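User: hey, got a sec? need Copper-sensing transcriptional repressor CsoR folded
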Amino acid sequence: MKHSKSLNVLKTAKGQIEASIRMIEDERYCIDISKQLLATIALLKKAHTQILKTHLETCVRDAAYSNNTSEIETKIKELEEVIEYINKPL
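Assistant: Yep! Here you go:
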């Protein structure tokens, strides 16, 4: 499976989200909850980076080697949309 590393990271993040929910339900200290959430965010960013790297190494590379101009343009447009979303103000 080409996304197995990302899947493992996401499963860890899922556990951290569940821990954050329990912390809130248990009315734990705000800073402790914040730190737990920041750790989760870091894992989500890591998984996202891994997914994009795999996309570049497989889907984009395949499109480039195919010499199919339409497919290449589609892959570039998809990446542009992701980059635009990442840079979108909160």
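Quick note: Residues 30-66 form the longest helix (37 residues). Let me know if you need anything else on Copper-sensing transcriptional repressor CsoR.
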